[in-house]
Here is the input.
Amino acid sequence: MTGILLFAAFALFAFAQAASARNGAQSAADAAALAAAQADRDELMEGLEGAIGVDDNWLDWLDPDEATGVGATAAAQELAAANDSTLQGGAQPTEVNGFPGYEVEIQTNYTVGESLIPGTETQQATAQATAVIAPRCDFEAPDDPLDVVELDCGGDVIEIDPEDFISNDLPDASVLFSVYLAE
Here is the structure.
């Protein structure tokens, strides 16, 4: 009877090890996907800041589709590595509910570990995650691109005057764009 209980305890321990590896992989995938989408958000903010008062189409930078995704894979790789994992195949552009985002797949650099179940000592966990970037602000585009624009960002009203723009006039990127994990 004691042998059976010990075997059951070791088997449960093996499943706990596997669950722990899987949770670590999912955390790494979530972080990598969010990093990819946040890289796009940063690109949008830089483009917006550089275009206000200079480019007649500066309001286009409030559309997440304007981001090119140049830094997305590098940002995802960095966060995956920080979580002892490897990004598989880069950050893949995707669309969720009409919003752009990135899907990532990672593999842990560590294994489940030794247990009573054969093969776990070489088994690595994998996980996938998708993060989306969505605009938070509504606005009416003016007829003249140099007119003041009021952005309604969930109750916060932000005025941008292209003729008298200072980069400090822009709020934090999280006010203009939401980055979240898709289900």
